Amino acid sequence: MVKTAQHAGSGQTEGADTRTRVARTLLEDGPTTAADLAARLELTPAAVRRHLDILVAEGHAESCDKAPYGPAATRGRGRPARVYTLTEAGRDAFEQDYDDLAADVLRFLAEHHGPEAVDAFARSRVAGVEARYAEKLADVEPAARVEALGAALSADGFAASARPAVGPDGTHLGDQLCQHHCPVAHVAAEFPQLCEAETEMFGRLLGTHVQRLATIAHGDGICTTHVPVGANDTAAHTTSERSS
């Protein structure tokens, strides 16, 4: 991931490998502190901070007093620890699929066949993915469907996770499906139809109208989709109808 110069000798190579592990953990788990990273990676906090300092110096990571999202955003009171997150350049350092070729193809479609052709392509693209995901969700209990969808997305490179959505008064509002990586973010920034088709797919798989709150393609640090309360109650029935 991190394109750091490699010198002869195992020490530099091991350091770069560890730095990649640190960066990938930030990618997959979202904003976090050096102490939390150290615990997850079984490293000393001092070692993790050294790697974080290098990532920050390279422009691949940044730090702040409060996380914009993720578990670190809900810490209790007390002196705030520095929270680290990947920058756009840091995410870009991971392999980006398609990009140039896909963007050229979509521009051609839009220019010669109109925006409707791009819409049709976006929906066609998710059709095969939806069929695969529907099979994976078919035997999953309704209450576990959002988490199972996150696992399916992670297997496809989206570094996804699911967590409860809780209101300011503690009311359970549903679930949030979070994607910490988007292999087609650059293309989706120009052609939001890709994000829209994906969101529609999530709604069909979960049997409810979901709401996309943020996207990496639009400059947010994470793609977040809200799944309202009660969605899991109808998801199994909806998938069953679609399969019959």
Number of strands: 7
Structural class: alpha+beta
N-to-C CA distance: 44 Å
* Spatial strand order of the main sheet: 4-5-7-6
What's the domain count? 2
Order of helices and strands: HEHHEEHHHHEEHHEEH
CATH class term of the largest domain? Alpha Beta
> Biggest sheet, open or closed, and with what strands and sense?
4 strands, antiparallel
Average pLDDT, all residues? 82
Percentage of residues in helical conformation: 40-55%
Q: Rg from C-alpha positions?
A: 20 Å
- CATH fold topology of the largest domain: H-NOX domain
- Overall, the morphology is globular
Uncertain segments: 1-12, 67-72, 233-244
CATH-derived architecture of the largest domain: Alpha-Beta Complex
Give the arrangement of secondary structure elements.
Blueprint: H1 10-29, E1 32-33, H2 34-41, H3 45-57, E2 61-64, E3 83-86, H4 88-92, H5 99-113, H6 115-137, H7 145-155, E4 160-166, E5 172-179, H8 185-190, H9 193-206, E6 211-214, E7 223-228, H10 231-243
Antiparallel strand pairs: 1-3, 2-3, 4-5, 5-7, 6-7
